[in-house]
Amino acid sequence: MTTAASPVPRLEIRNLVRAFEGRRVVDDVSLTIMPGQVTCLLGPSGCGKSTTLRMIAGVEMQDSGEIWADGELVCNTIFRVPPERRGIGLMFQDFALFPHLSVARNVAFGLSGSAEEKRARVEELLHRVDMSRHIDSFPHQLSGGEQQRVALARALAPRPRIMLMDEPFSGLDNRLRDGIRDHTLTLLKEEDTAVLLVTHEPEEAMRMGDEIALMRNGKIVQQGAPYNVYTRPVDRATVSFFSDAN
Ligand code: ADP
Ligand code: MG
């Protein structure tokens, strides 16, 4: 047993590469995220953010590179833990609630255990996202923001060690967005989850990230604390990316 070991990253990706039709859309990407840390993968549309997330989730296979979680190999080019056994929660824009299931059944969807255990976890999560009164509602009876809160509860219910979020707030109107972002952050921090949040909005990355990884043309061009990335851009393209977005 080692005692003073350095902390093990919750998620580590090493030299991830994925090409489509000979073009590298993810080009040697490496990232390390500690438990409780939120890293925002920020970059313009088409730069390879979603493809990176899909490889970590296990629904897309990399051409080369490795994915590790809690010091264990999750995936390389010859070994692969299936998506459902990776301990990963997903909140994707196009990963909507199941329309034919009640809120309770949506949140219970990925849970195992007895009916009582599942019910208790569902009630706890719905309470924490302030949606208890909608436990028997169906998705179409909820507003966009309410649906998003249920989606968050569903993603957190199985206690994922890693949460992957792909532009999860982009469908919400501005008035609601700030509140839901803050609420989401609070919940994720409480669970000590490592979060990789994809966004094309600098403002969102500045607000939510402990760290920003700036991506362009498949590569991470800069990485660091939001303030440092914002105040010390590496090149002109980064300057205009930040200013165009304002
Ligand atoms: P982002 O999420 O940053 O907008 P994506 O990862 O979705 O970017 O896509 C990066 C690039 O890879 C885009 O040019 C996209 O068209 C291309 N791409 C993504 N998936 C596929 C695919 N299955 N086949 C071919 N090209 C793809
Ligand atoms: Mg995308």
TrEMBL record:
Superkingdom, taxonomy of origin: Bacteria
Keyword ATP-binding included in the entry's annotation: yes
Biological process (GO), any one: quaternary ammonium group transport
Chain ranges passing through the membrane: none
Keyword match Ribonucleoprotein: no
One GO CC term, this protein: ATP-binding cassette (ABC) transporter complex
Domain ABC transporter: 11-242
GO molecular function, one term: ABC-type ferric iron transporter activity
Keywords: ATP-binding, Cell membrane, Ion transport, Iron, Iron transport, Membrane, Nucleotide-binding, Transport
Name of the molecule in the record: Spermidine/putrescine ABC transporter ATPase
Lineage of source species: Bacteria, Pseudomonadati, Pseudomonadota, Alphaproteobacteria, Rhodobacterales
Residues of the full protein shown: 1 to 246 of 366
